[in-house]
Amino acid sequence: MIQHNDAPNELLFLTSNEGKYNEASFIMNMFGIKLVWRKTEKMEVQSDDVETVALEAAKAAAIYESSPFIIEDDGLFIDCLNGFPGPYSSYVLIKLGLKRVLKLIEDDRRARFKSAVALHLAGRFMIFTGIAEGTISFAKKGDLGFGYDPIFIPDGAKRTMAEMTVIEKSTISHRGKSFTSLAGYLKKFH
Ligand code: IMP
Predict the structure, then answer these.
(1) What is the C-alpha to C-alpha distance for residues 62 and 64, in angstroms, rounded to an integer?
(2) I need a surface site. Which of 46, 103, 107, 148 has the fewest CB within 10 A?
(3) Are 118 and 47 in contact (CB under 8 A)?
(4) What are the chain's domains?
């Protein structure tokens, strides 16, 4: 358990993805916690679960980073593709692009985004997770957000995540959930 005097006023977010930082920073700001962007490529181990990837990346980063920090790993898991691209989401987006991902989808369009945020604070590691359930759209729509947003329609919505503002997306997204849970934990010590 961290102590009251371990509570950080600001937290480093180690990521190379500006879209992630912008959303996470917006969410943490609502809780009065300042996120500072440290542009860094994370070390990625091969694993099917985002928790393991985030935790191992945080352990590797803790060797050189002494300030309190977080690292996030995400993936899009598509049911008819047995969870693919999952841990390969970033690579598949670069190599195939959204149009070719859409061509792989069959009748069952169910999918989910998973987010795992690893916190390194006072020599300890903790993981906070969030899942957004939804379906894959038939075509790309919207130009907000990043990554797979133009083809992901969250449950309960009629628009893709790329047609939502950061505020709208954050109330239902995987990242909104994992960072809200992280902020709730940190607020206990302020
Ligand atoms: P990683 O966590 O950096 O490995 O990213 C996984 C992949 O998922 C990247 O290609 C991101 O673009 C994508 N991704 C992560 N979060 C989101 C999101 O909120 N919307 C759309 N795509 C995302």
Answers:
(1) 5
(2) 107
(3) no
(4) 8-187 (3.90.950.10)
Q: Ligand 1 site: residues with CB under 6 angstroms?
A: 17, 73-76, 89-90, 93, 145-149, 161, 173, 175
Best residue for ligand 1 mutational test, from 76, 92, 166, 169 (most atoms within 8 Å of Cβ): 76
Task: Measure the CA–CA gap between 47 and 30, rounded to whole angstroms.
Answer: 32
d(CA 38, CA 18): 10
Tens digit of each residue's pLDDT (9 = 90 or more) over 37-96: 999 898 889 899 999 999 999 999 999 999 999 999 999 999 999 999 999 999 999 999
CA-92 nearest atom, ligand 1: 10
Token pair, residue 91, equals 């690579």
3-class secondary-structure state, position 183: helix
Q: How confident is the model at residue 5 (pLDDT cuts 50, 70, 90)?
A: low
Q: Whose CA is nearest to atom 13 of ligand 1?
A: 147
Residue 79 falls in the annotated catalytic set: no
> Of ligand 1's atoms, which has the minimum distance to the CA of residue 23?
19
CB 138 within 8 A of CB 102: yes
